[in-house]
Model the fold of this input.
Amino acid sequence: MLKIVSLIPSATEVVASLGLAEYLVGRSHECDYPSEVQKLPVCTQPKFNPEGSSGEIHDRVTDLLQTALSVYRIETNILQQLQPTHIITQAQCDVCAVSLADVEKAAATLLGCQPQVISLQPNLLAEVWTDMERVASALGVDGTGAIASLKYRVEAVVEKTKTLPEAQLPTVACIEWSQPLMAAGNWIPELVSLAGGRSLFGIPGQHSPWLQWQDLVAADPDIIICMPCGFDLAKTREDALQLTQYPEWKDLSAVRSDRVYITDGNSYFNRPGPRLVDSLEILAEILHRDLFPVSYLGSGWEVM
Done:
């Protein structure tokens, strides 16, 4: 029988989308969706205090990485008790979740089981679909229907935005971290383009770039969207207020036109799994409210 441990939220959501949530026996400390997974044993913990502002968290992580290879630890004693058949993790970012090397090392020490380690590393939507196919194949199910349903929703957005003239495509700055300033990369520029916008920072498929404040001022985007990694709506609103302390803030076009938005990055934009499609729909609502019904306002995004 399948006994799956997921060590990253996006993988947990992939497993659930494939109809296999009942076979999850363990999760990471950050896995919280679908809600029923929160009752599962927690198999990872951060080595730092994850509370506080973006600047405080950045400083703690930076300090920790001076002496440690990873900012998370694996609870190997819990893995030993769970005896998983599969462990799903990631090889994308050692600040986002436990490292692949740590997972492989932990799996090798387990007695009584030899779990298959599945590592995910998507940077674009197509790679999310490929990862879902790999997970489905490894777990012995057909993921075709689940993936097709997600692709259909993407196409529904693209059908409305692909004919928009260039003049109606707003310039967009997606902010993944405020202190220090970082733009969103990886899949976010691709989602902005599909939603009918022009991403000013970040290259599709490449890691998120650090910015200087003057980079944002010089670009003067039509729209600013805050989506800090790991922050919900309330925490994003609190953290985004730090941006308003810059003297040039009030003169930015997005600010003057009331087109600065906060999002629940933790639930949506930061997780490269099935809910990236929700993220695309959120972006479409924000960028083109005349074309898309407002479904996520108050839950996925708000005006700052």
About this structure: The first strand starts at residue 4 and ends at 6. Residues 285 and 292 are 5 Å apart (CA to CA). The domain at 4-121 is CATH 3.40.50.1980 (Rossmann fold). The chain has eleven helices and twelve strands.
